[in-house]
Amino acid sequence: MELESREAEPGTVRPGGRTARVRAAVLQAAGDVLAERGFAHLDLADVARRAGVGKTTVYRRWGTVTALVADLLVDMAEQSLPRSRTGSLIGDLKANARLVQRTLTDPRQGPLFKAVIAAATCDPRTAEALRRFYDTRISEWAPCVQEAVERGELPEGTDPREVIRAVSAPLYYRLLASGDPLDEAAADRAAEAAAAAAHAGVYAR
């Protein structure tokens, strides 16, 4: 059954309405397919069936698989937890690292991220959507580094975004390349390494 006959562009609807419920159902279904089967098996008609939404609704609103993935990444960025405020740089960076670690080891989110990253290597629109997703998350956490600079914990001119990137990079390497354990200990080491480098002035402009 088609739940909505008219759809707004992704990201422009108010939460709580029928259109928002349609979007949520479709994005949930798309994420399920990505986690279960990967990008190559993502099909708009199949997503519509899983979501209980008419095919015309899905095709009219998203049009292509890459547009659907882009909207899924927008939603994931919006739904991500806000940054922690522990009062210390190492506390904040460990909170960030553990959030990344929990996300990447989640039974659904981990395979979903792998699928999207794999798709981004060969699809420019997915790659751009993925860059926007990470830009949003880095922007959310970068202030904890700037606050550390203002407290005198870090050298003036420290690049907050580079520090946050340095925290998550080793965790993604474990997910995608090395296969080494991706546990809390690995997350804490990544945070400690980034903090030590930042204290040493490695990320000062």
TrEMBL record:
Record PROSITE patterns: HTH_TETR_2
Gene Ontology terms, MF aspect: DNA-binding transcription factor activity; transcription cis-regulatory region binding
Entry keyword Transcription regulation: yes
InterPro entries: Homeodomain-like_sf, HTH-type_TetR-like_transc_reg, HTH_TetR, Tet_transcr_reg_TetR-rel_C_sf, TetR_C
Stated name of the protein: AcrR family transcriptional regulator
Residue ranges of domain HTH tetR-type in the record: 20-80
Family matches, as SUPFAM superfamilies: Homeodomain-like, Tetracyclin repressor-like, C-terminal domain
Residue range(s) of DNA binding per entry: 43-62
Keywords: DNA-binding, Transcription, Transcription regulation
The species this protein was found in: Thermocatellispora tengchongensis
